[in-house]
UniProtKB/TrEMBL annotation:
It comes from the Bacteria. GO terms for molecular function: glycosyltransferase activity. It comes from Paracoccus solventivorans. The keyword NAD does not apply. Keywords: Transferase. It holds the Pfam family Glyco_trans_1_4. This is Glycosyl transferases group 1.
Length: 407
């Protein structure tokens, strides 16, 4: 029998998780049947046509309504009381460790009862969640009450910030396998998984479609123009954009002729705008706002390199996209980033949070001869094509699904 897989997600689709949409599409190209479950919709926040189309393919659990979820919970209790009570105990145990408490996890129990009922109706044989947060909790509860087995992908850094509150050990114990997107991520799971569960932990990278970016032309010769850097991502503390105005100002003082475009938005935008004004970098830094996939490709096409001054990451997909476009990456020695970007070959790496080192790296990149920058970009492109092609990664995932679900 061929396994039928359901992806189980919290809020989906979203602009920040387009890599999940691409992963699902790659699995479907390989003949894997995927049903999409999401707890909630963010329809108002979607602009990209592909995300809008994905929204139409997704079943939203909370749209079923409280009466339906409660009815499914009651039906599950009557049909399999021992398993249901075991799932309820698991929900209360996980809730006891979590700041949002047991009540939130009883809501997860109701969601799990509905997902279990729908999985049975649809012939789902395996659930896969992304992130070790509430979607993984619902998957664990589905399994505990007699529904299909599950796996989940851990990205970091959020899971590693609160592993006990998220009951990672319990979620790993109940899973068929757990995918970490980097060896660093797998090493962190070793810290929290029971020793007997270590063999469930495997590295399955995030991926992109390299061909979608490889067609971008090389940056034009400088010929007196400034070096153009781009940053792409949420304006959040962990992404470190707040350091860029000061680092850019220092690099300019060191002789760099450089411009920067910030693609994205978020809670830190006012602080970033204030930092730009305070450093006098308003003439060199442009805020472009959120862009769709096409806009991101255009931003990369106009850039000489991507800069990611992150304090915490999993394995940044935007770095893969830049590398596939032949753009080097200036980033930080954190998490899985050094597994992706080789210092001096595919880009430049600096200690996280070090403005002086970041400024030196910017100035160093600006001073490189054009042929060295192009060689670095070509090395980056080859690196991603060999290790992060989404179709190759989907094949690994499909094999894991088949192996662990008994299909």
């Amino acid at each position: 029998m061929t396994a039928r897989i359901a992806y189980l997600l919290n809020t989906y689709p979203q602009p920040s998780v387009t890599f999940i949409r691409r992963e699902i599409a790659a699995l479907e190209r390989q003949g894997v049947k995927i049903h999409r479950f999401a707890m909630r919709s963010d329809r108002a926040g979607l602009k990209d046509a592909a995300d809008l189309a994905e929204h139409e393919r997704t079943e939203f659990v909370l749209k079923a309504g409280a009466p339906r979820l409660l009815a499914d919970m009651g039906a599950r209790l009557l049909a399999e009381p021992r398993r249901f009570l075991s799932a309820a105990k698991l929900a209360l145990r996980m809730g006891g460790r979590h700041p949002q408490g047991r009540l939130r996890h009883l809501i997860y129990l109701a969601e799990a009862a509905h997902v279990a009922a729908r999985a049975r109706a649809l012939g789902i044989t395996h659930l896969h969640a992304h992130f070790g947060t509430n979607a993984a909790a619902v998957a664990a509860l589905v399994r505990a009450m007699g529904g299909p087995g599950y796996s989940f992908t851990v990205h970091g850094p959020e899971e590693f910030d609160a592993p006990q509150a998220l009951s990672l050990a319990d979620k790993i114990a109940g899973a068929r396998f757990v995918a970490a997107i980097s060896q660093h991520g797998r090493s962190q799971l070793f810290r929290w998984a029971r020793l007997g569960d270590w063999d469930k932990l495997r590295v399955i990278h995030c991926g992109i479609a390299p061909a979608a970016f490889a067609e971008l032309p090389d940056p034009p010769p400088l010929a007196g123009r400034p070096v153009h850097l781009v940053n792409i991502g949420r304006f959040a503390e962990q992404k470190g954009q707040i350091l860029l105005p000061a680092a850019l100002a220092q690099a300019v003082d060191q002789g760099a002729d450089v411009r920067l475009t910030l693609v994205g938005d978020g809670a830190l935008r006012p602080q970033i705008e204030a930092a730009i004004a305070a450093t006098g970098m308003g003439g060199r830094i442009r805020l472009a706002g959120w862009l769709d996939d096409r806009g991101v490709r255009e931003a990369l096409a106009q850039a000489d390199a991507l800069i990611l001054p992150s304090f915490a990451e999993g394995l940044p997909v935007v770095a893969m996209e830049a590398m596939a476009a032949g753009r080097p990456v200036i980033s930080t020695w954190i998490a899985g980033t050094p597994e992706l970007v080789r210092d001096g070959r595919d880009g430049l790496l600096v200690p996280a949070g070090d403005i002086d080192a970041l400024a030196v790296a910017i100035a160093r990149f600006c001073a490189l001869p054009g042929d060295q920058r192009l060689a670095m970009g070509r090395s980056a492109r080859a690196r991603v094509a060999g290790a992060h092609d989404i179709d190759l990664i989907a094949a690994d995932l499909a094999a894991a699904f088949a192996e662990t679900s008994g299909a």
